[in-house]
Each structure stands twice: as C-alpha cells, then as structure tokens.
Amino acid sequence: MINRSSPLKTFIFKISIFSLPFLLLFLVYIGTDPFKVLYRYQNYYPPREHQYIILNRDRITTESLIRNYPLYLYDSYIFGNSRSYFYRTNEWSKLINSNKIFHFNANDESLYGVVQKLKYIDDNKLNFSNALFVFDSGLLKQDAPNTGHLFIKHPVYTHQSWIEYHTEFLKAFFEPRFLIAYLDLLITGTFKGYMRKVMSDKIYDYNLAHNELFLNDEELKIEKDSIGYYQKKKKVFYTRTPVKQYDASILKMEQQLLLKELSFLLSKNRVNFKIIISPLYDQKKMNAADFKYLQKLFGAENVFDFSGQNAITASPGNYYEDSHYRTFVATQLMQSVYGKVRL
C-alpha cells in the first residue's frame, strides 16, 4: 500500500510504468545534480560562467552561512528578496563600520522567511550587530513558507522532512519543458532561445565571503550602449499611468504577529537596523496605514518608504528591468537612510 502522505512515494508510483526511463533519468539527476541540492558546494556560482540552471537562492544562502560563519564570524546581515542583491556590502560597510557582512536573502523572499532567518541567528547565538531589511509589499504579505523548487525554504526553518524537500526538486527535474531543455543543453552544450522559458543565460559575478551577487554584465551593457539596452526592453518598461496608485493594506493579523516577532528579536539582540521600502517600477505607493504601523513598531527613524511616484521610479534608467532597480540606486538609498545624502 502506497503511503499517500509521502509525496516522493506517490510521485514514483505515478511514473512507475516508465520505470526504465525513469531509472536512467534519475541516474542523470543524481550524477549531474542540476539544482545543486544533493551535494555540498564551496561555490555555487563558478566565476564568469553562465549559470543556466536557476537555483534555489534560499538554499545557497543558508548552506553558505552554515559553512562560512566559523570562518568570517559575520555580525551584519542584509535581508530581502532578489531586490536586496544589489545592496553592495562594501558600500554598507562604510555606514556601519563593519565588513563582516552576509547577504541573508532569497528569491521571492517572504516575511515568514525573514523572521525564520532571524530566529536561526538567535537560536544559534551568531553575532548580530547590524541589519538592513529591503522590503516591498510582495514580501510583506507572504506569511507562510513558499512552495516550488525555486522558492521552497530550507528545512532548518520549516522542519520539513528531507524527503518532502527533495521531492520538489525531483518533480521540477521531470517537468517536461525543463527536462527537454536540460538534456538538450547537457548533450549539445549549447544554450538555445527556447530554453529561456525555464533557464537563464545571465552571468553573475559572486563574492563568496559575503554571499554577494553582482550583475556586472548588465551594467557593462548599459555603459556601452544605454540607448540600445533600453530600446531592446521597450516592452518590459511599460507605460505607467500618471494617476497615483496605492497598495491595499496587507498587514493583517498574521503579518503583524510576524513583524512583532521580528521586532522582539531585534530588540533582544540590540541590533542597529534600517528598513527600506523599495522603489518599484510600478510606482504603487505603500498603504499609508501599513507604513504608519511599521514606523510605530520599529521607530520612524528606522523605516523609510521610497515607493510610489518619485524621482527614482520616474526613470527607467534606474532599473535593469521592471522588477529590479540598479546598484547605484541601492547605494543612494543606503546613504539616504543613514543620513549621508538627501534624496
């Protein structure tokens, strides 16, 4: 009798009629570890190489902290989703007088995930002096663990069984669109246009000590031909309405409980911190009541809202695409919240 509570057993049962092909493909999965979740890696981002396979950033971040904390003894952390990647540690270090900085972020990070990461620091008695939180409405409204192989949280946070955890990656491997593209790439060694639906040909530069990602190639493309760069992305940079847009309130009871836990952990560890509400291209202003709640809970001197219509969001030139603002913008925001410049 199949135990229906076991996702892996159920999954294998469903494809058992293809047992031989499954076995061969499973051996490919074990041998190549496309999502880099089966083995330990010193560096998840080989220098100046295309990544191609999109990895689970939450896993990389967590495994890197576990492995590297004894070596670097971090005391300062940057939390957030992929928009937090571009907050350079060398710039933040000038503002906090510490270079022991770790990017403790994840793709499509949730408020739940941020709180779990602070609990991990607290539970394991890691050094904790400074924190920078890069928030937006998408992050703040997520009060539960993410799902899917790209966003599932590391089991150290969820206490999920390793079988359930790895089932997500195995299912993703056998998804037909990915499997076809991956086998094609594996056999031919050539990245093809159709693969962009499930893969990426971006080149990331990576600082191992800080778990820090850079998009230097994108900056070089803009520097070399900014007009051409943005011309190619005309459809990405859609025309926005001149009418001011406001987010609906998202800080319900569940979110407020998580935020109070976040505040407690910061106070317990006597952490110096700042919270930045990101300036997103959609120009939607954070709900006023939500912003006031954050200011009241964390202190008005620690919470800064850059959302809505303003000088930053007005220009497409401040963005790589409609989801991520550029590194120099992140630097300006940091300098602003620490009182070094006025925006």
Secondary-structure blueprint:
Elements: H1 7-14, H2 19-32, E1 50-52, H3 57-72, E2 76-80, H4 89-96, E3 101-103, H5 111-123, E4 130-135, H6 137-140, H7 155-158, H8 162-173, H9 176-188, E5 200-203, E6 205-207, E7 212-214, H10 216-224, H11 226-232, E8 245-246, H12 253-268, E9 272-277, E10 284-285, H13 288-298, E11 303-305, H14 311-314, H15 327-337
Parallel strand pairs: 2-3, 2-4, 4-9, 8-10, 9-11
Antiparallel strand pairs: 1-5, 6-7
Helix pairs in contact: 5-12, 10-11
What global shape is seen? globular
Radius of gyration: 21 Å
Q: Report the count of strand segments.
A: 11
Order of strands across the widest beta sheet? 3-2-4-9-11
Question: Which sheet architecture does the biggest sheet show?
Answer: 5 strands, parallel
Query: Structural class of the secondary structure composition?
Result: alpha/beta
Low-confidence stretches: 1-5
What is the number of helices? 15
Mean pLDDT, to the nearest integer, reads 93
Query: SSE order, as H and E?
Result: HHEHEHEHEHHHHEEEHHEHEEHEHH
What is the straight-line distance between the termini?
A: 64 Å
Q: How much beta, percentage-wise?
A: 5-15%
Helical percentage: 40-55%
The tally of structural domains comes to 1
